[in-house]
Amino acid sequence: MIDNIVKAFESQVDKTPDLTAVEFAQKTMTYSELNDKANSIAKYLITEKTIGSGDIVPLLLSRNENIVIAMLAVLKTGAAYTALSLQYPESRINFVKEQTNAKLIIDDVFMSQKFKQYKWNGNSFFDKFYKVQNFFPYAIPIVLDNEPPRM
Question: How much is the pLDDT for 7?
Fold first, then answer.
C-alpha cells in the first residue's frame, strides 16, 4: 500500500514516464520531466537549505507549472508547504514566514534558478524517503488554467 503522495507520484512516473502530467497555457510536461525538475529542486533544498521533516516552506508563486514542481519538491524533502497568494500584503507574507519559522520562501525568482539536474534512479538519494510501489492504474494529468476557480 502507498502511504503518501510522493510514493504515489513516483509510481505513476514509473508507469507512464512519457505521458503528460502538467499542462499550462501552451506548455506541457511529462511525468518524467516533472519528476526530474522536482528532484533537482528537492536535492538543492535538502543539501543547501537543510529543508526536511518538520519544516514548512511557504510558496509565493505566479499561477503556472512551477507551483506543481515546487509542491512536489517540498514534499520530497519530507517537509510541508503552505501556499501564499501574490495578492497578500507584505505584512501577511512576513507573518506567515515568522509563524512557520521558514528557512526560505519559494518564489518566482527562486524557481528561475538553474538547478543541477538530478535524476532519481530508484537506488539513490531519495531512497530514505520512499520506495516506489504500484498505485495508479492510469495517468491523471494536472491541468492549470489562468482562471481562478469559480464558486
Answer: 87
Q: What would the DSSP string read from start to end of 92-120?
A: HHHHHHHHHT-S--EEHHHHTS-PPP---
Provide the whole-model pTM. 0.78
Q: Pinpoint the alpha helices (H) of the chain.
A: 5-15, 31-49, 66-77, 90-100, 108-111
C-alpha cell of residue 45: 533544498
Interval 79-105: pLDDT, tens:
999 999 999 999 999 999 999 999 999
**Other beta carbons within 10 Å of 4:** 12
Q: In the chain, what are the domain boundaries?
A: 5-114
Q: Any idea which fold 5-114 has? A: Rossmann fold (3.40.50)
* Burial of residue 7, with CB atoms counted within 10 A of its CB: 0-12 exposed, 13-18 middle, 19 or more buried: middle
